[in-house]
Amino acid sequence: MLTAVACLLALGAALTQAQAMDLATDGRTDYVIVTPADAIPAEQTAAQELQSHLLKVTGAQFAVRSEKDGPVPTRAIVLGVTEGFRAACPDIEVASLKHDGVVLRTRGDTLYLAGGRPRGTLYAVYSFLEDVVGCRWWSATESYTPHTPTLKVEELNTVYVPKLQYREAFYRGAFDGVYAARSKCNGHFERVPEEYGGHYRLLGWCHTFFQLLPPEKYFEQHPDWYSEIDGKRVGPRAQLCLTNDEMRAELTRQALEWIRKDPTAGIISIAQNDWGNPCQCAKCRKIVEEEGSEAGPLLRFVNAVAADIEKEYPEVLVETLAYHYTRKPPTHVTPRSNVIIRLCSIECSYAQPLTGPQNQTFKEDIEGWSAIAPQLYIWDYVTNFANYLIPHPNLRVLAPNIRFFVDHKAIGLFEQGDAGSTCGELVELRAWLLAHLMWDPSRDENALIDEFLDGYYGPAGRTLRQYIEVTHDAVERAGTYLRCGMQDTSAWFTPQDVFKATQLMNQATEQVKGDPVLADRVRRARLPLDLVWLSSYRSLKSAAEAAGQSALAPVDLKVALEDFLAAAKRFNVGNYREGVVFTQLEDVLRARTRPPGPPPEQCKDLPAGTWFDVQDNAFMLYGVPNWAKLGQDPLASDGYAARMTTNHVQWATQCRIEADSAGRYHCYVVARCQPKLPADGKLPTGQAFKIGIYDPEATRSLVTLEVSIADAAGDKYHTFDLGTHDLKPGMYFWLAPMNNPDAVEAIYTDRIFGIREQ
Predict the structure, then answer these.
(1) Residue 608 burial (CB < 10 Å; 0-12/13-18/19+)?
(2) Starting at the edge strand that comes first in sequence, how are the strands of the sheet with 653-656 ordered?
(3) 1 CB burial (10 A radius; 0-12, 13-18, 19+)
């Protein structure tokens, strides 16, 4: 016998069931899809997308017709703001839906899917297909469509306008216009055609000062238009003199020409170049002092340009950056109503949310801009530009940071991900997750992650979730300041954590080995962990043997490398770091398979474990091949060395400290220089290069040694004593030339070694 409560529940269920709409029954339907009489291209696409997806789901063919074809039948899916929609939904102010807002509403036997123009109705269809029908678009090429011949729709009453008007997931796989539309992303780089709703476009994109006024065209005649640095006007690698009215007039003229050529773009960028050197002239300095920030002269300048643009193009917005030296908001000047401020988080740590103690200064800056900017956009960094392919555990901060942006009145968000690579860590998950959170920041990020992992990786999904927890726990435990330019994982990924992650990846691989599609997906997900092993094979293998985990290490480094390279190329890896092709990493990794040379003379009689020796093929080189590169050198211990050119002062040769090199060590660097001898054959005087050990946590070098040409020249290598230091993972040795190519031809580094102090 049913209780009273049970009876009420049963009655409620029956009423709900009675209200359900039968869109299809056993693969048949009598519903039609109705478009507005004045349907725009995106609304016509909405009808096509709905029709084709419902056919795949139910097997039923839903006819499409226009509102102008006659009376709309009762059993209809009405798309867009039709007369019927207005009559059925008089409470909805269409203008309030803006460009992207959606309505999903049932009235009797009619389903209304509508929204603002140009994208709202299309987004309403995608919301219905995803949230109600169960379709998923995991990537541009991978999706899931349920098979439901009988499709019932419960009562719907959703009206939603996204708080973020501009949403961009900057991932290589997310640029596809159809995938971007289905993900409800509408940013500058997402190639969304008009029939899929189009997207926001910025004239110039960013860093436009020299796009508008290139120094090669203007500097000779107008040096006063450019930065004054140390009393001298500078063209290359500088900015503009923002208090020069003549310069502003010409820049405005050029900006208006840009707009006239493409007036529909709607936004133009007037923004600083991607380097420092703001103008130091007296007038610019005076404004900086008045405003307490370099953003002061920038914003006064951009406001003046925006005022002139508004006279001819009142609907065009002018965007500028709050970036590096202009990140701090000014004290007095505020942005005009047609100015967008795009605040950049590039200096932040991504191991903590932006409300964490590591990010206190950024928190203060966004609070300041939020108080004065009528239109605040954010440029957020969600990848590791120094190496796309290594683990970068920032998934836990993505949702809190997006909510933080929205809570501080941000209306645009550019999430800069792995645009140059297809093989960054879990890039498919990241692009999908960010798109969903930008559309609705209130979503449960953990539920979204689990949904993707289970749907995309099948039986390996739960195991990959554990892998994610291992990497994130590791970086949080280490307290690492996780920048978007980490060279490697040594600062936070201990051997024990690597072993746990490897066990889980082995398990995930085993779980999908019978399914070629899922196996490929797991193989791609494994590449970042494989690179950790390949990059630190010597120290990880030693640690594995000491921990009784030797089975986890690749048996043969060369075989493991070839497997990694083959997989990366099969997945069309692209770049391995920002602007650097994968083949450069391939060359470095291949060099690491060379057999080691004989041990240093100082170490050959010492017991194992009391010294370390890192040779050139394990160095980190920068600016390859212009600043540094590996090459043959018959004078080196193994016939190879790292060679640096001398026309710069960059730390182009670096050697990171691995876990097995941590401790108190007496440190040595084995290097030499090749001097340029003048006609008289006399050795040049002066310094040849610098050597140091850098501690990123303390942001200082433990030691810096300047080496003279006299001490480094000759037909043999020299051993330089850096003293005894407490070394920690994350620290690194560095060598840098002195920008003296007239005196030194090249600098060669053979090896770096240390002897443990008792």
Answers:
(1) exposed
(2) 620-621, 653-656, 732-737, 687-695, 700-708
(3) exposed
- pLDDT tens by residue, 5-25: 333 333 333 333 447 999 999
CB count within 10 Å of CB 328 equals 18
What b/e readout covers 574-583, taking b as 16+ CB neighbours within 10 angstroms? bbbbbebebe
CA neighbor of 43 nearest in space, from 18, 10, 66, 14: 66
DSSP letter (8 states) at residue 174:
G
Which residue stretches of 140-244 are H helix? 177-182, 209-212, 215-218
Rounded to whole angstroms, what are the CA distances from 23 to 28, 33, 76, 133? Answer: 9, 11, 9, 11
One-letter identity of residue 572: N
Q: What does the DSSP assignment read for 365-420?
A: HHHHHHHH-SSEEEEEE-S-TT-TTS----HHHHHHHHHHHHHTTEEEEEEE--TT
pTM here is: 0.91
Q: Report DSSP letters for 668-711, one per residue.
A: EEEEEEEE---TT-PPPPSEEEEEEEEETTTTEEEEEEEEEHHH
Q: Which two tokens stand for residue 244?
A: 């020069």
Q: Give the 3-state DSSP-derived string for 312-332, with helices as H, strands as E and coil as C.
A: HCCCCEEEEEECHHHCCCCCC
Q: Which of 561, 569, 562, 573 is nearest to 537 (CA)?
A: 561
User: C-alpha angle 586/590/594, rounded to 5°?
Assistant: 165
Neighbouring-strand partners of residue 386: none
Residues 6+ apart with CB under 8 A from 186: 100, 119, 166, 167, 168, 180, 192, 197, 198, 199, 200
Which of 711, 71, 751, 123 shows the shortest CA–CA distance to 435?
123
CB within 8 A of 453, min separation 6: which ones? 429, 461, 462, 464, 465
**Amino acid in position 649:** V
According to the model, what pLDDT value does residue 596 have?
A: 86
d(CA 562, CA 553) in angstroms, rounded, equals 15
How far apart (Å, rounded) are the C-alpha atoms in residues 581 and 565?
Answer: 13
**pLDDT value of position 17:** 43
Distance CA 384, CA 416 (A): 10
Distances 271 to 155, 210, 267, 339, 751 between C-alpha atoms, Å: 49, 9, 12, 12, 44
Answer for the pair 80, 35: CB distance below 8 angstroms, yes or no: yes
Nearest to 582 by CA among 659, 527, 640, 526: 527
Asked if 185 contacts 171 with a C-beta cutoff of 8 angstroms, the reply is no
Residues 389, 531 contacting (CB under 8 angstroms):
yes
What average pLDDT does range 211-228 have in this prediction? 98
Owner of token pair 């092993």: 533
DSSP H or E segment with residue 183: none
CA-nearest of 136, 260, 138, 271 to 213 is 271
Model pLDDT for residues 67-118, shown as the tens digit of each residue: 999 999 999 999 999 999 999 999 999 999 999 999 999 999 999 999 999 9
Longest distance between any two alpha carbons in the chain, whole Å: 113
Which one, of 580, 386, 359, 349, lies nearest residue 485 by Cα? Answer: 386
Q: What angle do CA 546, 725, 660 make, to 5 degrees?
A: 15
